[in-house]
Amino acid sequence: MPDSATLEAVNIDQDAGNFSYPEDYQHDAGVGLSEATIDYISDVKGEADWIREFRKKALKIFEGKPMPTNWATKDLENIVFENIRYYLSKGQTPTRSWDEVPDDVKQTFERLGIPEKERKFLSGVEAQFDSEAAYSNVKEELSKEGVIFVNSTEGLREHPELFRKWFGKVIPTGDNKFSALNSAVFSGGSFIYVPPGVKVKHPLQAYFRINAENFGQFERTLIIVDEGAEVTYMEGCTAPKFETSTLHSAVVELVAMKDAKIQYITVQNWSANVFNLVTKRGMAHENAEIRWIDCNIGSRLTMKYPGVIMKGRKARGEVISIALANDGQHQDTGAKMIHAADETTSNIVAKSISVGKGRSTYRGQVHIPKHLKGCKNNTECDALLINSSSRTDTYPAITVRGNQHATQHEASVSQVSEDQIFYMKQRGLTEAAAMSLSVNGFVNDLVREFPMEYSVELKRLIDMEMEDSVG
Amino acid sequence: MSQSLKIENLHASVEGTEILKGLSLEIPKGEVHAIMGPNGSGKSTLSKVMAGHEDYEVTEGAVFMDGENLLDLEIDERSRAGFFLAFQYPHEIPGVSNANFLRAALQARLPKGEEIDAVAFYKDMYEKMDSLSMDRKFTGRSVNDGFSGGEKKRNEILQMMMLEPKYAVLDETDSGLDIDALKIVAEGVNRMRSPERGFLVITHYQRLLDYIVPDVVHVMSDGRIVKTGGKDLALELEAKGYDWITDELVATA
Ligand SMILES: Nc1ncnc2c1ncn2[C@@H]1O[C@H](COP(=O)(O)OP(=O)(O)O)[C@@H](O)[C@H]1O
Ligand SMILES: [Mg+2]
C-alpha cells in the first residue's frame, strides 16, 4: 500500500483540472491555418530554415490528405480547422525554477500537484502550458551523466546533430492526416536523450495543459535511448471543460538502440470537449524493448494506436492499453506491431470499458512477414460493458505470413450485471463506488504492472469518472 | 419506537405476477426467527424485496426496521442502516479481492474524510476467518469467483460478521454445506446472537435449525405466512412434510 504522502502527491482531482485563467498571450498565431501561420510560429521560435521547410511541406501533405472517415468515425468532420488557434504562448521560455514561472501558469500546475510530485518521485519534469513549456528541469546528477530532457524547440536548436537524425523518421509526416498536421504546426513536447548505459532510475514526467478555448495543442516528442540505456517517461494531460471543442494532436517518436529499454506511460484525463488524435510509434533495435502503457480516460474522441517497429533481432514490443468511454465519449484505441526482424516478440493487452452511451473500439494491427523466423505475438482484448446501451467493436488485423511464428489471440466481452451491482450495494457501497470497484477489478491485472504512483492515479481517475457517470 | 424488524402486509410482484401476497411477521430485536417453506413459495423474493432489488415491485405494505420504513431507503442506505442479506446465490465480483471488497464496505460506513485503520481491519478479518475455518488465501481471491457453493456461503457469513448488522436475513445459507461446514457456519451465527440483533433464517430443511435454534418458526406458502409456532413446528414439518400444511389450509378454507 502506498503511504498517504504518496497518495496525496499523486492525487489529481479531475474537477481540480476544470478551471482556466484569463488569456493574455504575448504570441498568438490567430485563428486558422495557412503558410502565414507557419511563418509566424517559425519566426517566434527563431527556427532554422530546414524546420520551416519541413513544416511547409507538411502543411501541403495535410491539405492533400482526406479525413480517414472511410474507416474511422464521422465525428472527425466536426473538427473545424479554420476555427482553431494553432499557437498561443505567453512568451515564456521554460525556466528551471518554479519561482520564475509566470504566476497564473505556476498556479495551474500547483493546483494539479505537479511541483509536489516532482519533489516526491520524479527525475525530471516538463510542464507545458498551451503551446510552450513553462518549466523544465532534470535532476542535476542526470544532466551530469549526459541525459538531455528539454522541449522540442530547444532540442532542435541546441542539439540538432542528435535529434535531426531521428526526427520524423519513425513517424513520417505523411503517416496520416494528423501526423501531417502536427508536423506543420508542432510546438512543445519533450526531447530526451539518454546516453549509452545510463539507466534513469526515476521517471521523467511531462505534463500537458490546455488553458485556452478553441485551441489546438500539437506537442512533438522524441525520445532516443542509446545502447543499453533505460528510461521511463510519463505524460499526464488535462484541459478545462469548455463549450467548444479543442484539438490535441501529438506525435511521439521513440528510438531504442541495441539493448535499450523505454517505458512510456500515458495517463490521460481530457475533458469531454477534446478531440485527441495522437500518433505514437517506437523503433526497437536489436534486443531492445519498448513498452507503451496507455490509459485513456475522458475526451470526446480519442484515436490512438501506439506502435512498435521491431527492427533488430530479438526486439520486443508491448502495448498495454486501458480505455474508458463514458457517456458521449468514443475511445478508438489499439496497437500496431510491425515485426521486421527474426525472433521478435510483441504483446498487446487492451482493456476497454464502456459506460452508458460510451463507445469503445479496438483496432489492432500485427504484421509478421514471410521471410522472418521465430516471431511471436500475443493479443488479448477484453471489453467491459456497464449498461446495455454501451457499444464496443473489435477489429484485430493479424497478418502473419510463413509458418515459423507463434501467434495467439483472445477476445472477450463481459458485462457488469445489475445483480453484481445489487450485491455490492447490499453491502453498503454506493452505485458509483460499486461501479468503480467493478471497473478497477476489471483492469486490476494490468494495473499491477504499473509503477505504483500511476496505478494510484489511475484508480482515482476511474473513481471520479464513475462518480460523474451516475451523476 | 419498536425495536424490531416488522414486515406488514407486504405485497410484491415481478413482471406483473404477484409473488408476495400480504406477508406479515415481526422479529423483535434479540430473537431468531426461521421461515420454512416449499420451493417457489417466495422466500428469496421476500429477502430481495427487503434488500431493495429493483426487479420486484412493492404494491402494498411496509418493512419497518426499528421504526424506519426500509422501503423508503436506497439499497445501499438499507445496508448502512444495519440490514444485511446473506444471499442464496452470492454474486461473483471478478478482479476485486475479498479484502478490498470488505474494506470498501466498511469504508462506506465511515464519515467522509475518515480512513479505515488497515492494521486493525486485517487483524479483525483474520480472527473472523479463523473462526470460520477459512484459509487466509481467501483475502486475496476475487469475491466468490471460482468459490465452491460452501465457500460462498461461508464468505457471506464472514461479511456479516465484519459488517455487524442490526438485522440479518440468511437465505438458505445451509444449502450446499456438508455437515461440518454447517456446524461451523451455525457457530458463527450463534456467536453473533445478541440482545442487540435480530435474525431471519430462511431454510428449506429443518437440519439447520438443530444448530441455530430459533425462537419462532414461520411456515410460508404461496407468498404468505400460513403458520407460526415454536421451534417444535420445524420438527413437525420435517416429520409430516409441507403437504400437511397445505392440506390443512385447504381443509380450513
Ligand atoms: N426475477 C424473477 N422473475 C420472474 N419470476 C421470479 C423472479 N423471482 C422469483 N420469481 C418467481 O417467484 C416465485 C418465488 O420464487 P422464490 O422467491 O425464489 O422462491 P423460494 O425462494 O421460496 O424458492 C417462483 O415462482 C419464481 O419463479
Ligand atoms: Mg430461495
How would you summarize this macromolecular structure in one to three sentences?
By secondary structure, chain A is of the alpha/beta class.
Description:
- The complex is a heterodimer of chains A (471) and B (253).
- Chain A has 471 residues and is α/β, with parallel strands linked by helices.
- Chain A has a domain at 25-304.
- Helix content of chain A is 25%, strand content 36%.
- Chain A has helices spanning 4-9, 35-45, 49-64, 103-111, 114-121, 140-144, 152-158, 160-163, 177-185, 418-426, 431-447, 452-470; strands at residues 27-28, 88-89, 124-129, 132-138, 148-151, 190-194, 204-209, 216-217, 220-225, 230-238, 246-248, 251-256, 261-270, 274-284, 289-298, 301-304, 307-310, 316-325, 330-339, 345-355, 359-368, 376-386, 391-400, 406-415.
- In chain A, strands 5, 6, 8, 9, 11, 12, 14, 16, 17, 19, 21 and 23 form a 12-stranded mixed sheet that branches. In chain A, strands 4-3-7-10-13-15-18-20-22-24 form a 10-stranded mixed sheet. Chain A has a two-stranded antiparallel ribbon with strand order 1-2.
- Chain A is globular and about 60 Å long.
- Chain A starts with a helix and ends with a helix.
- In chain A, 55% of the residues are buried.
- Chain B is α/β, with parallel strands linked by helices and 253 residues long.
- Chain B has a domain at 4-94 and 167-252: Rossmann fold (3-Layer(aba) Sandwich), CATH 3.40.50.
- In chain B, 37% of the residues lie in helices and 29% in strands.
- Chain B has a 6-stranded mixed sheet, sandwiched between helices. Chain B has a 4-stranded antiparallel sheet with strand order 2-1-4-5. In chain B, strands 7-8 form a two-stranded antiparallel ribbon.
- In chain B, strand 11 and strand 12 form a beta hairpin.
- In chain B, helix 5 runs parallel beside helix 6.
- Chain A binds chain B through residues 1, 414, 417-420, 422-431, 433-434, 437-438, 440-445, and chain B through 51-54, 74-76, 78-80, 84-85, 87, 90-96, 100-101, 104-105, 108-109, 118, 142, 159, 163.
- Residues 14-15, 19, 37, 39-45, 55 of chain B line the site of adenosine-5'-diphosphate.
